[in-house]
Amino acid sequence: MTKDNNSTDSAGFAPETPSAPQVTGIAIEDAVLTTVPFSELGETLPTGVFHEGQRLHSYTLAPFTGDLEVMLEELFQSKKQGADKVYSTLRQFLPTAIRDIGGISLHKLDSDPRRLIDRMDLGDVFSMVLGLRCAYHGKGDIAISGQCPNCNTRNADQGDYNQPYHDLGTVDVKCYQHLPQEPLFDIVLEDGFTVTGEHITKVRMRPLKFYQLKTMGDPNSGKFPNLNMISAMMHSFPESQSYQSPKGDFFDKKLYSRLINSPRDKKAVFDAMEKLQPGPVMQIDMDCINCSYQWKEGIPWGQLPSFLYGPISPVRS
Ligand SMILES: [Zn+2]
């Protein structure tokens, strides 16, 4: 046994050959995301799971049962707080609530389905949460409340003619139309930057993964928001010797400050970051009952039990 045998799920199978699969990137110019309303998306994932060279991007929900609601309530009673609580609840709940992805059970996709949920795109997980909510309520109705930024009138859906419920089916979802491989995108830098003697002119980025929900929602991560986001989405520098397959959050303050030395490189990377966020926006269009001003209000999905199983009008966090 070699000391680097860190596989935990290869029981019964031959160990993987050391030759790593050829990882390639898609030119950022070829990344095409289209926006569709959630009602048209149905049980389809904006990115999907890549399995044996195939993109699995449909999913099936387990039927509504009392057991599932009890399970969710119990998971959500953890002492954890905020994003950490939502993260740990969903990664345990979804393997039971989702029957299959692309017709394949989650256990067949990964012997520990929590790992599968972890490495799915955050937007795919958001999409499944909306799908569960619509299925459990039979439709997308949701009561949203919020204060008009223009006239300060409090808008609160009552489900009547004057203040009808909002429809989650109207939420915009950004989806990859064609995706020939895992979503890794190469951005060519016009100026580039130098680190450990190498001049970096190409960076590879990817959409946020579900497991990153925790760090993205943690204000104590010690990073400022721009660096936090860019570090979470930076995959590698594909033409570099030192950063071809780096581990973890390698994109630190030093690399960030060198990258942003060039305003046009900074813009290219920030534009890519903006572009490469598949999934539902998790906001809904508001239209003030008093002055008709339009704005967007967040969907109160973070209170998972009340969002998925509660009445149409959820308890606001
Ligand atoms: Zn108003």
Structure, described:
- The chain contains eleven helices and 17 strands.
- It has 317 residues and is an alpha+beta fold.
- It has two domains: 32-179 and 284-309, no CATH class; 185-276, no CATH class.
- A hairpin with a 2-residue loop joins strand 12 (185-195) and strand 13.
- The structure holds zinc ion.
- Residues 148, 150-151, 153, 288, 290-291, 293 line the site of zinc ion (ZN).
Question: Quick recap of the structure?
Answer:
With 317 residues, the chain is α+β, with helices and mostly antiparallel strands.
Write the layout of secondary structure elements.
Layout (H helix, E strand, L loop, with lengths): L25 E2 L5 E5 H4 L2 E8 L2 E8 L4 H11 L5 H16 E4 L2 E2 H4 L3 H7 L2 H16 L3 E2 L2 E3 L6 E3 L9 E2 L4 E5 L8 E11 L2 E8 L7 H4 L8 H9 E3 L16 H7 L3 H13 L3 E2 L2 E5 L6 E5 L5 H6 L8
Parallel strand pairs: 1-12
Antiparallel strand pairs: 2-11, 3-4, 4-5, 5-6, 7-10, 8-9, 11-15, 12-13, 13-14, 16-17
Helix pairs in contact: 2-3, 3-5
Bound molecules: zinc ion.
